[in-house]
């Protein structure tokens, strides 16, 4: 298959931790904008 879901899911948690994309890291980081702030007008 072109996309192996099981392979992806095996590593996704580790990848998110490395990139700082876990929910706990989001909540403690004040520098990340809320999704409502990321409208096309802000670009």
From TrEMBL:
Protein name as catalogued: Uncharacterized protein
